[in-house]
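S1.2 Input.
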Amino acid sequence: MMYLAAEHFVRSPQWLWYILFYFLFAGLAGGSYAIATLLRLSGDPRDEPAARIGFYVSLVTTVLCPILLTADLGVSWARFWHMLVDVTPGDTGLNFKYWSPMSIGAWALLVFGFFAFVSAAEAWLSDRRGSPLVPLLLNRMFNVIGAALAIFLASYTGVLLSVSNQPVWSDTWSLGGLFLASGLSGAAALIAFLMRYRPEAAFSLSRLHQAGGYFAALELALIIVFFVTVGAAGTLPRLLPWLALWALAVAGIAASLVMARGHMRMQASGGSAVLTRVRLDTLVVSLLVLLGVLALRAAVIFSAQ
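S1.3 Output.
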């Protein structure tokens, strides 16, 4: 069977570091909210401190996204607002274009931002009060809806690249899933890292490490799919200059898998999965995973430019 190289007809977007960090924080925002929701759904009140960390992280990273996106576009905040609202005289109204990936993404970010803000505010007020502020069932229903939007946001940036006509990006169908798995892995690492500032959240550390291992395994599988599909399209040489970034991404995945395996073996041998503090190895692994998440996005984005 002979494969024909894909034809590409558009100019490289020449994206700068703004868009790289927009893609990073979008993945962390969606991943953190989804993980926080899973921790809350576990039904164990001892997971609540870690869940609240996740909601805080989700809000902060979500706020950064429109700032970075606007800076990369080189437009004023008014222009960004026009992506959401049509201010044309005689034709005012919501500016939602279901056929436009950019319009869908802008609206998804706005709607998810509402869920991230409400959940973070509820977490903060509950912390001040010392007990949940909103009835558990209502809270969970709200979080589940927010988590669905979070998963969409975390995968959206990869899908946006796939529907472009750029080499590498449009040569594979794996980017949506790859960015989602990477965002979840990075979010688990970031929440684990921030537990050092909230010792009572350490109860959930083992669960986070194990979940991070599953996310990392899925990420590794999708990286293999990515290389296979790009190779079949004939654009594999474009990835070669960025092998150092790919190596860093794989190193982060390997660190997450090793840490997860250690905690699984501890449980299998009858050891306690409840940790009382965040150890140095967690901090090192978390930083390595986050660097790998950033390196993955850099390698994908810049290989098409």
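S1.4 Remarks. The chain has one domain: 17-302.
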